[in-house]
From TrEMBL:
InterPro entries attached to this UniProt entry: Iontro_rcpt_C (IPR001320), SBP_3_CS (IPR018313), Solute-binding_3/MltF_N (IPR001638)
Coiled coil location: none
Subcellular localization, as worded in the UniProt entry: Cell envelope
Domain (Ionotropic glutamate receptor C-terminal) ranges: 25-246
Domain Solute-binding protein family 3/N-terminal: residue ranges: 25-245
Signal peptide annotation: 1-22
Protein name: Transporter substrate-binding domain-containing protein
The keyword Transmembrane is annotated on this UniProt entry: no
Family according to the record: Belongs to the bacterial solute-binding protein 3 family.
Taxonomic superkingdom: Bacteria
Species classification: Bacteria, Pseudomonadati, Pseudomonadota, Gammaproteobacteria, Cardiobacteriales
Keyword flag Membrane: no
Length: 246
């Protein structure tokens, strides 16, 4: 009897350990198509500013980051279905999104720009009259819809598709995150910025945030605490310089 009881206790201990290990994982939804924030490396590994930052958050929280790759416009619906614990994917904090998920404190102050081909840039006087490419489900799509109600808009699941159509002349400009779009310009001397930076606070002025389920306030507080630690210990500056001060 004692032997059976001992075996049961050992089994219970092993099961408890398994549950404990499972709780130490933090599942993260992301769309790795936005260098330098998140993208796939040569060996199919996840790279980018967001990835390094999230990994450091997990390090502070003593949890393992496990990433789930999704299309951008599927991130929030799948978070609400609890298919992962949080999302990080260059996501602007907006009032509309805040109705669907809880955000961490901003970890990056964002801006947006228009990009076109060099041979077409001089002829662009009014963006509203151009064919505009934007990311599906993005703040940029909403901004264009609200600001230029008569604009011809094409939506894309990822930036590479939009940039390809820009090169083929199917759209006149692509509107997107400043650092993401500039990364494409660095790689292609036929692309140029047109117009001014857009920093409308209603859409872009609150910065980028890590999204968590509305009811998971404890995780939001943990993430905010980790971000505070990272900024205080110098890790944030180290990661920022790696991706942006080049």
């Amino acid at each position: 009897m004692k032997k059976k009881l001992g075996l049961l206790l050992v089994a219970a201990g092993l099961l408890s350990g398994t549950v404990s290990l499972a709780q130490e994982k933090l599942t993260i939804g992301t769309n790795p198509a936005y260098p330098p924030f998140e993208y796939k490396g040569e060996n199919n590994e996840l790279l980018g500013f967001d990835i390094d930052l999230m990994n450091e958050v997990c390090n502070v929280l003593q949890k393992e980051c496990v990433y789930s790759e999704q299309e951008f416009d599927a991130l929030i619906p799948n978070l609400r279905l609890r298919r992962y614990d949080a999302v990080i994917s260059g996501m602007d904090i907006t009032e509309e999104r805040a109705k669907q998920l809880a955000f961490s404190e901003p970890y990056y102050l964002n801006y947006s720009i228009y990009v076109s081909t060099a041979d077409k840039a001089d002829s662009i006087k009014n963006v509203e009259e151009m064919k505009i490419g934007v990311l599906s489900g993005s703040t940029h799509q909403q901004y264009i819809r609200d600001t230029y109600k008569d604009a011809k808009v094409s939506v894309y699941p990822q930036y590479p598709s939009a940039m390809s159509d820009l090169a083929l002349g199917r759209v006149d400009v692509v509107f997107g995150d400043g650092e993401v779009v500039r990364d494409y310009i660095k790689e292609n001397d036929k692309l140029v910025v047109v117009g001014e930076k857009v920093t409308d606070p209603k859409y872009f002025g609150q910065g980028l945030g890590i999204g968590v389920g509305l009811r998971n306030k404890a995780l939001v507080e943990e993430i905010n605490g980790a971000l505070k630690t990272i900024k205080e210990n110098g890790k944030y500056d180290e990661i920022y310089k790696k991706w942006f001060d080049q």
